[in-house]
């Protein structure tokens, strides 16, 4: 059976144009380098926003803008909870979007400029009263969260509609994570020198974030231009709200991935928020922070490069658990390392970053497989709802993690720009080592019970396509 010009088969199922519905799977599964680069580079842009908020926003609030650690903790909790609530809403909107450019791609093009503007406003420090500063921070951070959701949910959802091949998704996710790390390197290594170059303080942050925003707008336009939504299994009929809820409620693999995502983001948020404090106060070597960020992000980049190779040989689940276990051991070792052992601190952090590359890549690679699981079990496909739900729990983890970081600082007696007490130093140390490790152990246990292996995924896809042809 041949396709119509619109690329539809019987039953209203979208497929790759100019292919037969009976064509072998391999005929349409291999993605070209341009498609992988086009999609992957988008996460560089997104991480210019994301990493800036995760690594520097708490520090900006406490040490630049003049908000107390306790007030910042409450702000992070409230604003990120609001952010989390918007994710399912955006997922539902995206699932019901139908344009000539696809469901998800238009949001990258039109959502990037507002996101850049509100990020710039968030890193601006107007002269206000103490209460005025809090109101300004709440408003700008919540607007940032909403604008970020409008771009990030559709971007993440693209993975499932670019290809339905499990291994190709791993490779595609590896490209994405590599560019995400590049964005992280730009932010982690470049922000402090750029802030200094542009005058330091609030003005330096403002100009630097404005520069990042301009780059991100251009890069997301490239992603829009170089991606295509073409997966066979995407229905032309938008799922109802009731169908979306049924897809979520009966999807055990999805909830196991969500637990792992929640644990991973909780660990990442707490640790990333604390690292700059760790180098500034525990080690007394704030000058080494950019070098440290370069080292750990470069090591994670190497881990991302080898993860598809390992996954193809060991399987996604075994590779995930192996990487996580080794990373957890390195975290415990870091907790026991004295502050003057800078070499050991760097080595342990590099090893941990290298090992955690596998869970980072494979979590996002496994999530699209849960979309087919729901379609296989219930006959309903709801990409946006599933990605939005996963993102909701990640944002919830960010809310808790950001609030916890601020509360640990406040509770341990942290005072900005002063010599810290032993209690404050111990609190900062726990945030860069022990607390993230405990969270990651929870996520690894969840993945232990994940049921979708490569054989089951092949079976699911085959049965889904057989049903589509029979309609």
Summarize the structure.
The chain is an all-alpha fold and 471 residues long.
How are the secondary structure elements laid out?
Blueprint (H helix, E strand, L loop, with lengths): L7 E2 L3 E2 L18 H8 L1 H24 L3 H27 L9 H18 L7 H33 L3 H32 L3 H25 L15 H9 L2 H31 L6 H26 L1 H20 L6 H37 L4 H29 L10 H11 L1 H15 L5 H17 L1
Antiparallel strand pairs: 1-2
Helix pairs in contact: 1-6, 1-7, 2-5, 2-6, 2-7, 2-9, 3-5, 3-13, 4-5, 4-7, 5-13, 6-7, 6-10, 6-12, 9-12, 9-13, 9-14, 9-15, 10-11, 10-12, 11-12, 11-15, 12-13, 12-16, 13-14
Main beta-sheet strand count, sense and barrel state: 2 strands, antiparallel
* Lateral strand order in the biggest sheet: 1-2
CATH hierarchy, class = Mainly Alpha
Shape: globular
What structural class do the secondary elements suggest?
A: mainly alpha
Domain unit count: 1
How far is the first residue's CA from the last residue's CA?
Answer: 13 Å
Question: How many β strands by DSSP?
Answer: 2
Strand fraction: under 5%
The H-level CATH homologous superfamily, spelled out, is MFS general substrate transporter like domains
Give me the strand/helix succession: EEHHHHHHHHHHHHHHHH
CATH topology: Growth Hormone, Chain: A
What is Rg? 22 Å
Q: How helix-rich are the residues, as a percent range?
A: over 70%
Q: Spans of 5+ residues with little confidence (pLDDT < 50)?
A: 1-28
CATH architecture: Up-down Bundle
Helix count equals 16
What is the typical, i.e. mean, pLDDT?
85
């Amino acid at each position: 059976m041949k396709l119509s010009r619109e690329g539809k088969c019987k039953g209203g199922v979208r497929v790759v144009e100019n292919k037969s519905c009976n064509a072998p799977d391999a005929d349409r599964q291999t993605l070209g380098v341009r498609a992988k680069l086009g999609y992957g580079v988008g996460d560089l842009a997104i991480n210019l926003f994301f990493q800036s908020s995760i690594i520097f926003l708490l520090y900006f609030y406490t040490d630049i803008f003049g908000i107390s650690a306790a007030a910042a903790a409450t702000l992070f909790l409230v604003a990120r909870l609001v952010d989390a609530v918007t994710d399912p809403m955006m997922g539902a909107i995206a699932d019901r979007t139908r344009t000539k450019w696809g469901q998800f791609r238009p949001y990258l093009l039109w959502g990037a400029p507002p996101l850049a503007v509100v990020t710039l406003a968030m890193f601006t420090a107007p002269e206000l009263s103490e209460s005025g500063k809090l109101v300004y921070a709440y408003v700008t951070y919540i607007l940032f969260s909403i604008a970020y959701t409008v771009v990030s949910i559709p971007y993440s959802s693209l993975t499932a509609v670019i290809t339905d091949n499990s291994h190709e998704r791993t490779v595609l996710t590896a490209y994405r994570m590599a560019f995400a790390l590049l964005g992280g390197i730009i932010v982690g290594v470049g922000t402090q020198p750029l802030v200094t170059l542009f005058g330091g303080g609030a003005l330096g942050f403002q100009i630097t974030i404005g520069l990042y925003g301009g780059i991100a707008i251009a890069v997301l336009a490239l992603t829009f231009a170089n991606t295509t939504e073409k997966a066979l299994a995407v229905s032309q009929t938008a799922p109802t709200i009731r169908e979306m809820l049924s897809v979520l409620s009966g999807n055990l693999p999805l909830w196991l991935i969500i637990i792992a995502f929640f644990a991973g983001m909780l660990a990442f948020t707490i640790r990333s928020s604390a690292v700059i404090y760790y180098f500034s106060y525990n080690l007394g070597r704030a000058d080494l922070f950019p070098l440290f960020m370069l080292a750990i992000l470069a090591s994670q980049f190497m881990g991302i490069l080898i993860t598809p190779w390992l996954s193809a040989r060991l399987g996604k689940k075994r590779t995930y658990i192996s990487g996580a276990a080794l990373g957890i051991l390195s975290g415990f070792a870091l907790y026991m390392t004295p502050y003057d052992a800078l070499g050991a601190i760097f080595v342990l952090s590099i090893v941990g970053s290298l090992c955690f590359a596998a869970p980072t890549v494979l979590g996002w690679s496994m999530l699209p497989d849960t979309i087919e699981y729901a379609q296989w079990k219930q006959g309903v496909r709801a990409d946006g709802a599933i990605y939005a739900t996963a993102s909701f729990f990640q944002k919830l983890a960010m809310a808790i993690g950001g609030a916890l970081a601020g509360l640990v600082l406040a509770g341990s007696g942290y005072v900005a720009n002063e010599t810290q007490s032993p209690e404050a130093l111990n609190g900062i140390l726990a945030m860069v080592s022990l607390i993230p490790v405990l969270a990651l152990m929870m996520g690894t246990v969840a993945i232990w019970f994940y049921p979708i292996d490569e054989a089951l995924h092949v079976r699911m896809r085959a049965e889904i396509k057989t049903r589509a042809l029979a309609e």
